[in-house]
Design brief:
The structure is a single chain. This protein has one domain (22-83). It is 67% helix and 0% strand. It has helices at residues 22-43, 48-83. Helix 1 packs antiparallel against helix 2. The longest helix is centred in the C-terminal third of the chain and has 36 residues, at 48-83.
Length: 86
């Protein structure tokens, strides 16, 4: 908890925190988002193969970008911890 009584990992304020399992969490989030997009495209009259390709592309793009950001943040954190004086 921070000084004002709020959790630091809130998406609405405070310092941004990293989830306990960021790679799994992002894959689940983008998987659900892709499934919603797939069904929306089907409901709007798109063919199933085009909807699957679009949803798959969105999943790969979103998950890949998030994993890249998380791995860069972890690398930077390890680099900063290595430079701290003992």
């Amino acid at each position: 908890m921070s000084e004002n009584g709020r959790r630091g990992d809130s998406i609405f304020g405070g310092e941004p925190g990293m989830p306990a399992r960021p790679f799994r969490t992002s894959a689940l989030f983008y998987g659900a988002l892709a499934a919603i997009g797939f069904f929306f495209l089907l409901a709007s009259g798109q063919s199933a193969d085009r909807a699957a390709i679009g949803a798959g592309f969105a999943f790969v793009l979103g998950t890949g970008w998030t994993w890249l950001r998380f791995s860069r943040a972890k690398r930077e954190e390890r680099r900063r911890e290595g430079r701290k004086p003992s």
